[in-house]
């Protein structure tokens, strides 16, 4: 992805210092383990890459909000978001991995955990595990309406997390089914989510608006890798203006009702807004 790279921990600290000095609201961390296995053990290891990065940033960049993506697909050898049993992802066994991962992130200093796996019951499982471990103040940003989308392509290549077989349509949502998305958001709230996220953003502005009108919690939207990359590709060809296109898309997501926008333009947008 243009302008983006996998970072070592010292470079993450530098990025976070810059993010803080630009006045960004926070950062979200994704991890790439040294090796992947069937158990996604790198996801919940106390000395996993995200856990070590959190400790380093917490120590060196105080005051920056740290969000973590809680999922398994970067850590499993098969690239699926959960435990594989007989060729299918086993929902309920996956919940234990997710809960362990979330607690390990909170222990390392995450203020917000953001489950992106789309297993049923994960928000309740994570809330219970966090509370039992004493992390009652750690918030949950649920990727509540996460669609099975073509727009994740560049991220999967960058994070080396494409499924080795099959696809994610058994656990991510059908792009045609808006009502199901609203139901998923309702479930996540009932299970204890503090904030709800719609992902991708631009193809689903209608759902951002409906979520904003219907639910009384902060609504986030994630302008994903494919949304970013297609704009960058057009900019590189000289077809569209970088700054205007960036700001127009972010404005549309804000206008639809998102109070928080996860996006790959953030540093440049912050510079323009300051
Ligand atoms: C992990 C995860 C993905 C993204 C965020 N968390 C990939 C996926 O679901 O395949 C995509 C982010 C992006 O495209 O920018 N489940
Ligand atoms: Zn995943």
What's the CATH topology name of the domain at 9-198? Answer: TIM Barrel
Count of helical regions? 11
At the fourth CATH level, what is the homologous superfamily of the domain at 9-198?
Answer: Aldolase class I
Task: Report on the biggest sheet.
Answer: 7 strands, parallel
CATH C-level class of the domain at 9-198 is Alpha Beta
Radius of gyration: 18 Å
Q: Can you tell me the overall shape?
A: globular
SSE arrangement, N to C: HEHHEEEHEHEHHEHEHHEH
How far apart, in Å, are the first and last alpha carbons? 25 Å
Strand portion, in percent?
Answer: 5-15%
Number of strands: 9
Describe what you observe in this structure.
This protein is of the alpha/beta class. Helices cover 45% and strands 14% of the residues. Helix 8 links the parallel strand 7 and strand 8. The mean pLDDT is 96. Bound molecules: ligand PBG and zinc ion. Zinc ion binds next to loops.
Short description:
The protein is α/β, with parallel strands linked by helices and 274 residues long. It is built from eleven helices and nine strands.
What are the salient characteristics of this protein?
TIM Barrel; binds ligand PBG; 14% strand; 274 residues; seven-stranded parallel β-sheet; two-stranded antiparallel ribbon; alpha/beta; binds zinc ion; globular
């Amino acid at each position: 992805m243009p302008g983006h790279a996998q970072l070592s921990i010292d470079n993450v600290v530098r990025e976070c210092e810059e993010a803080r000095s630009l006045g960004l609201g926070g950062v979200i961390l994704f991890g790439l383990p040294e090796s992947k296995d069937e158990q996604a053990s790198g996801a919940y290891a106390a000395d996993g890459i995200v856990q070590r990065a959190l400790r380093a940033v917490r120590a060196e960049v105080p005051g920056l909000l740290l969000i973590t993506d809680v999922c398994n697909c970067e850590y499993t050898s098969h690239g699926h978001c959960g435990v594989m049993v007989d060729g299918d992802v086993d929902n309920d066994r996956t919940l234990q991995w997710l809960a362990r991962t979330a607690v390990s992130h909170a222990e390392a200093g995450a203020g917000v955990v953001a489950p992106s796996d789309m297993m049923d019951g994960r928000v309740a499982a994570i809330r219970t595990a966090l509370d039992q471990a004493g992390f009652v103040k750690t918030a949950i940003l649920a990727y509540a309406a996460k669609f099975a989308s073509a727009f994740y392509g560049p991220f999967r290549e960058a994070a080396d997390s494409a499924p080795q077989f099959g696809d994610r349509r058994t656990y991510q949502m059908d792009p045609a089914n808006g009502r199901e998305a609203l139901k998923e958001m309702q479930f996540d709230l009932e299970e204890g989510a503090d904030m709800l996220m719609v992902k991708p953003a631009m193809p689903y502005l209608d759902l951002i608006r409906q979520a904003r009108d219907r639910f009384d919690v902060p609504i986030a939207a994630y302008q994903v890798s494919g949304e970013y990359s297609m704009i960058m590709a057009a900019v590189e060809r000289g077809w569209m203006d970088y700054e205007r296109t960036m700001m127009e898309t972010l404005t549309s997501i804000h206008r639809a009702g998102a109070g928080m926008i996860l996006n790959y333009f953030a540093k440049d947008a912050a510079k323009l807004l300051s």
